[in-house]
């Protein structure tokens, strides 16, 4: 925490001490989201790319000079971070691009980018002397919190609230990790409201990313990592799927950090992608009007947030980067699940590949030029939602154990030549 100067309200600018359980501005309430502010001159004077390159810890904690954690707080042992990045010429060709890089954050320990925020939550909960951490989630934040808390060997318990539509794979993770799981009969808004009431009543540590300013700091490590992996020569565009807005807000925070300490010169443009069936942030981005709550009508459950609470940070980040937002259909998401899988071998869940559908749409509109360098983060693994993966993919060939019959079928399907 030696480089953290204070917390600031994004609404009124009021400053607060960086206490681990300071969530919102006293004066502004729910509109008073807080931002972690750093002494960038101090960071730049005491940290360098060379020192980073020689840091042995390959987890997100290698960026602790830009993280709000105390030196003596026990860190969760799971290997969060250091997810791979790939360049795919074939995928680029299919999208009408010359270059695209894919960072596969579905390879984090519990299968999503949200491990980065949950690892931070485990640290901050300990600093707040909390014994129970709670959140509401459509699935990934929940499973990541349960897994990272479980890795502490019994020091922390979790109480998780999920909507009734949460995919079975994510529920299975929660239960295996030993979380206290509450399946709320309603949508995500109902799950959030009940979690907020329970957290307030019993004083649990609040991991809800739109409320807790430290969660953005965890999520930003995906872009810090990508920058390092690309030798601090980031692409022209960075693309993220958007639900509550916290992840793309974290991306902007990382870019700001890197620019302020002199690690990068060029700031990429951010593209935020929402599902057409649940796109309140895109609507507010283009209309300039306050956010309107919408229904949650999309297969991409991880970004199905009809009443996002981090939309101000998300919109601010996209606009500050001179970026854009766009919506995609569920069918386009299904198509991208297939395309990503067959061209790269990466299995992304619906929300994890929505950004890819946005890239194709932006290229077809001429908003992203064919010679633009594009980076895309797969935010969640496809095994999280096998049901929708099966919907996206074709059915297997069902056949009797007869080689001649198999040959005929293969010829008919073009697998082999007759």
Describe this structure in words.
The protein has a six-stranded mixed sheet with strand order 4-5-13-10-11-12, with helices on both faces. Strands 8-7-6-9 form a four-stranded parallel sheet, with helices on both faces. A three-stranded antiparallel sheet has the order 2-1-3. It starts with a strand and ends in a 5-residue tail after the last helix. It is globular, with a radius of gyration of 21 Å. It is built from 16 helices and 13 strands. The protein is of the alpha/beta class. Helix 6 (168-176) links the parallel strand 7 and strand 8 (180-184). It has a domain at 85-112 and 215-392: Rossmann fold (3-Layer(aba) Sandwich). Helix 4 packs across helix 5 (140-150), helix 8 (213-219) crosses helix 10 and helix 13 (330-344) crosses helix 14. The protein has helices spanning 40-46, 49-53, 89-95, 115-127, 140-150, 168-176, 188-202, 213-219, 221-229, 246-260, 280-287, 311-320, 330-344, 350-364, 386-392, 403-413; strands at residues 4-9, 15-16, 34-38, 85-87, 99-104, 132-136, 157-163, 180-184, 205-206, 237-241, 269-275, 324-328, 373-378.
């Amino acid at each position: 925490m030696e480089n953290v100067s204070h917390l600031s309200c994004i609404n009124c600018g009021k400053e607060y001490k960086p206490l681990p359980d300071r969530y919102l501005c006293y004066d502004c309430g729910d509109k008073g989201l807080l931002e972690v502010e750093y002494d960038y001159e101090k960071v730049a004077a005491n940290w360098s790319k060379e020192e980073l390159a020689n840091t042995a810890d390959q987890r997100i904690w290698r960026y602790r000079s830009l993280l709000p954690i105390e030196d003596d707080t026990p860190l969760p042992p799971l290997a969060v971070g250091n997810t791979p990045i790939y360049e795919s010429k074939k995928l680029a060709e299919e999208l009408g691009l010359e270059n695209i890089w894919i960072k596969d954050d579905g390879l984090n320990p519990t299968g999503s980018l949200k491990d980065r925020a949950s690892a931070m939550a485990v640290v901050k909960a300990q600093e707040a002397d909390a014994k129970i951490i709670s959140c509401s989630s459509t699935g990934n934040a929940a499973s990541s919190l349960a897994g990272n808390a479980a890795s502490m060997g019994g020091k922390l318990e979790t109480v998780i609230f999920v909507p009734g539509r949460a995919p079975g794979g994510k529920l299975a993770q929660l239960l295996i990790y030993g979380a206290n799981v509450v399946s709320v009969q309603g949508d995500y808004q109902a799950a959030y409201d009940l979690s907020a009431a329970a957290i307030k009543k019993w004083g649990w540590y609040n991991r809800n990313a739109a409320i807790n300013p430290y969660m953005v700091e965890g999520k930003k490590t995906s872009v810090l990592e990508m920058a390092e992996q690309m030798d601090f020569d980031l692409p022209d565009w960075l693309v993220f799927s958007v639900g509550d807005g916290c992840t793309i807000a974290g991306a902007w925070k990382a870019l700001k950090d890197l620019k302020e300490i002199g690690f990068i010169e060029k700031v990429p443009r951010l593209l935020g992608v929402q599902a057409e069936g649940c796109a309140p942030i895109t609507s507010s981005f283009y209309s300039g009007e306050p956010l309107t709550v919408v229904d949650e009508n999309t297969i991409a459950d991880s970004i199905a947030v009809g009443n996002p609470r981090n939309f101000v940070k998300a919109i601010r980040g996209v606009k500050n980067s001179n970026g854009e937002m766009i919506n995609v259909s569920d069918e386009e998401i299904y198509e991208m699940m297939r395309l990503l899988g067959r061209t790269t071998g990466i299995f992304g869940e619906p929300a994890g590949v929505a950004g890819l559908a946005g890239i194709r749409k932006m290229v077809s509109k001429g908003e992203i030029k064919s010679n633009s360098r594009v980076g895309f983060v797969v935010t969640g693994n496809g095994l999280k939602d096998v049901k929708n993966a099966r919907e996206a993919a074709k059915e297997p060939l069902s056949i009797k154990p007869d080689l001649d019959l198999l040959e005929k079928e293969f010829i008919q399907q073009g697998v082999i030549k007759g």
